[in-house]
Each structure stands twice: as structure tokens, then as C-alpha cells.
Amino acid sequence: MHYAEHPQGDLIRHVQYICMTPRKFAKKEDIELKAQLFNDFQGTTHWPHCNIHKAGPPLRDGKPCPKNRTEPLEKPVVTDQILRLAGAKAY
After folding, report:
1. Spatial contact of 34 and 87, defined as CB atoms under 8 Å apart
2. CB contact set of 86 (below 8 Å; sequence gap of 6+)
3. Nearest to 20 by CA among 90, 91, 84
4. 34: closest CA among 21, 25, 44?
5. What global pTM score does this model have?
6. Phi/psi class of residue 46: alpha, beta or left (left: φ > 0; alpha: ψ in -120 to 50)?
7. How far is CA 90 from the centre of its chain?
8. In the Cβ-directed half-sphere of 16, how many Cα atoms lie within 13 Å?
9. What are the tens digits of pLDDT across the range 20-55?
């Protein structure tokens, strides 16, 4: 929802919120799960260091959205810096 309105038409709109905290706040298992989700093109919650869990597919009318994708149409350029920020590579 955006401005209390459901999406209109056939276009998909995506918003990515980013929140960052020091890595030392995170447990080892949370960093490992975050890395797995990053590699699977999955998002998590707004909490960068805790409460990490797979979000699941978006629902529309209580059913998985037929327009949902499991991978981006254009894959990102993955650099060492991106991997470190995602927790997928130690620094």
C-alpha cells in the first residue's frame, strides 16, 4: 500500500527500505541466515541484526501473488562490498 491505496493496473511497484546497525549486535546464526536469504534473493524484516526470518511470498487476496518472482529480472552486480554489507562475506 502507498498513501493508503492498493496497487492499480498491471505494473509491479517495489520499495526497498534499508536499516543498518553495527555487525557486533548480530548473533552468528542471524548473520548466517541473512547470508542465505541474500543468496536466495529473499528479503527480511527491518531489523538488520535480529528477528531475521524468511518473509515468504507476498499474498494477494489471501493467495500467493501470481506476479511474484523468485529472482530479479536483472541480477545485481555482486561485489565484495555488497557481500560484506549483506553479511554473506566476513570482513
Report:
1. yes
2. 34, 35, 38
3. 84
4. 44
5. 0.68
6. alpha
7. 19
8. 4
9. 888 899 999 998 998 899 888 887 777 888 888 887
| Residue 28 phi, psi dihedral angles, 5° rounding | -55, -45
Residues in the chain: 91
Between CA 52 and CA 73 the distance in angstroms is 25
Tell me if residue 80 falls in helix, strand or coil.
helix
Compute and round to an integer the Cα radius of gyration of the chain.
15
**Residue 70 — pLDDT band, cuts 50, 70, 90?**
confident
> Could you say which DSSP state residue 36 is in?
H
Whether residue 4 has pLDDT greater than 80: no
DSSP assignment of 13-36 equals ----------GGGS-HHHHHHHHH
Helix-strand-coil percent breakdown of the chain, rounded to 5?
25, 5, 70
